[in-house]
Sequence to fold (430 residues):
Amino acid sequence: MKTYNIITIFPEMITSVFKQGVVSKAVEKGIISINPVNLRDYAEGRHLITDDYQYGGGAGLVMKPEPICEAVSALKEKSDTFVVLLDPRGIKFTQKTAENFATNYDNITFICGRYEGVDERVRELVVDMELSIGDFILTGGEFAAITAIDSIARLVPGVLGDETSADDESFTTGMLEYPHYTRPAEYKGLKVPDVLTQGNHAEILKWRVDKAIEITQKHRPDLLHINQLDIESRKKICAEQKRGLSKKLKLNVALMHYPMKDKQGDIVATAITNLDLHDISRSCRTYSVEKYYVVTPIEAQREIASRVINHWMDGFGSTYNPNRMEAFSHTELKSSFSEVILDIEKRHKKRPLIVATTAKPDRATITAKHLGVISEQQPVLLIFGTGWGFADEVLETADYIVEAIEGVGEFNHLSVRSAVAILLDRITEI
Ligand SMILES: C[S@@+](CC[C@H](N)C(=O)[O-])C[C@H]1O[C@@H](n2cnc3c(N)ncnc32)[C@H](O)[C@@H]1O
Fold:
């Protein structure tokens, strides 16, 4: 039997929800046990207080640590249990979490917060895992616990009756599910697709797979884990995603050579390098960036860079390696940041969103993925620095700072061309 304990100040909420439906039948059959634990039973004093004012001031109350820890200890005395704190800070609950819990855990205890949440020490003392059911705030963990238990319990063998019925549902397959129809065969002029009424099971299966891909592609393209699909579907999806993406992105990149800081923090103009010119142009074309701007007020620097670009665009290079010509076809030299903004404004009739890049993780205000979504909707200028980083005046113009690329060790000094390539890949990740 699987046991789900729920530590709460509102045990009736749990009892009343699980009185009806599939889960209640599984409880009756003894397949699962749902055990609300009244937190007040572990509170002390005449008023059985479970919450208190927070240290440091502030309006909200905080759930006291002692009753929660006592309740968990009492449960652990009876049997070993995996303790889950429902909390917006936790890892996000998905179908995979439900599968993992249903398969690998026989006894789970859910702690439901209320008010501002639980005293921080509870996490350290008794919690094995923090779990969130999504990026929104509920009034209490009971709603999250009920949602999680409902989704876990239906995967426990015997709960759904027909054990195969959970197998091909949305998320379990890595995709959303195909459409369902029941009688009548025609309703208000809308007919059930012929393939479903003709009894050819191979055709029905094929139709369902195609529809599942189509619906997932349309509503949740992020779910399409390509390696779960057969080769043919994979090719089809890749082609569609690429076509859609290159049409949509309004992303621009600028490599700033002024105003930059030097080692001493003084404002300087840095030198353009041939490697950055070539490699960033190539990355930008590969990821369908609208324009790659190289910005320096030093005329002699622009002159050298334009000779390089012209060699590949019009000179011998254009016939020697036409791919390089293509790579440089969207690269432009500008003397100032404001010239770049003007150029984008002219094209889009709108000021671009300015997004700075940083190597410091604590400065970030937007994720690369979110930036990808935004740059489908409005023009974005992603700025990269040289030397020892941007002058403060550049950072002040930025609307956002995108998340830093962090490696796996202590050392974190990527070349700017590597940073451009990695970020473009993260921003355009589907
Ligand atoms: C009003 S919320 C507290 C929110 C908290 N002050 C914060 O900003 O993160 C009260 C309780 O509801 C539960 N809760 C709220 N949103 C949740 C979510 N998305 N997932 C899981 N539990 C949630 C938690 O148990 C939380 O302690």
